[in-house]
Amino acid sequence: MILDTIGWLVALVATLTGLAMLQDANRTPADTSPHGWCRHIMRLCLLIGITASAVVVLMSPAMRHASLYEVALRCCLTGILVMQSPCPWWHYVFKGQGAARIERRRVI
Fold it and tell me: Model-level pTM?
């Protein structure tokens, strides 16, 4: 029961983070070479895959029954995903302050 709850919460965090990252990923890449476009398209595909699979785990009760190792893997991968946000996670997800929208702070 506790593993199912942890798995559901991790899927919720992964879904919210994936959706926020997809909002920032729709800009054109700074590197306009074919390599830069390939990385951009690959990043979009992987973010769509992460978000879609997290939504499936979030909505399907049968997918929540996982072993300890599967839940640990989900937690670690979601932690890596969350740590890549350019500002504190809750600002990034709930206020929409992505990399281009972070306000500059004055340094005195």
Answer: 0.75
